[in-house]
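Support request, please re-run this one:
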Amino acid sequence: MKKSIFFLITLAFTILGGASLGIASGINPAITTGGVMGISLFMQSQKGTIVMAIQKEIWVDYIIGNLFKDNEFLNYCFNADAFVINGTLVHIPQAGSASGVKRNRTNLPATITQRQDVDITYALDEFTTDPRLIVNADTYELSYDKVASVLQEDLANLKEIIANWMLYKWAPVGATRILRTTGGVAAAYLPSATGNRKKLLVADLARAQRLMNKDGVPKTDRYALLSCDAYAQLLLDSTFTTTRDVIRDMNLPEGVINRLYGFNIMERATTVIYNNAATPVVKLPDPTGAATDNDCILCWQKQSLEKAMGTTDFFEQIKSPTMFGDVYSSLQRMGGRIRRSDEKGVVAIVQEP
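Re-run finished. Output below.
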């Protein structure tokens, strides 16, 4: 019934529009009306094609718009999107070291040197979702909210996996960039970890601050990312009940820490995991758990870390003859790095057994 009414209304407006166009242009109204009706019928015949293009655009926009949602920490770094080539590769021209300077030079002629420029190049990782079958997917294309609900779980998982790998790429490996927790012992809280670990203290963040100060990196735009367990542990530090200056940076009724020792405090379910080697080694995301797993608090200055987003794509197979529905999947290229080879500006506070 609704389709019939819509057809009649469309037909009436088409005839009226064609007749008006004929009168205004001096062309026979019958000819202009026929032309307008022909165009309308052609557009109706192409409706499926138009719908598919709009649908894909909505999905791509949704992925881009929500990629960093719930992973806010990814916004606080140097953005290298402008250096992405073909959506797959990052290429950053980088100047070599400056020339030397001598006071009251006595040896002449001076030694001639040439600056050695080194380009930074790295490939972006490709993250793809498993294909998802959706029945009657065309019913979702008119509502953004419904589009978001169809593959919400898949895209949430895509975001989470990308964020985990970015943290892995941002985790320092040098012994001088890794500190250990120094509080009293408590039972390990990571899923596979056993035994005890030293608690995270406010003083541990103070040590990270001193190390970054020695690095000479800016004192602004510093961040510390804690797992929810480390965050809860930090709240139990007696410093919060004895030091007035620290309490100013807390929302005591809500149990929220805003800033500590120059770091903007951020919380996430998990961060990165290090093993318990003499110099702890960061583990790959989603590894097999181990008894020696140690949690990490990642501290950084905004210009010390980098992220780059490449190709975002969405794939669809409409009316699959084998799946009896529409099949969808998505692709996102993403990468990042610690910007300095000496890793200055980045500190990992790793649990101490």
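The chain has two domains: 2-45, 50-353. The mean pLDDT is 81.
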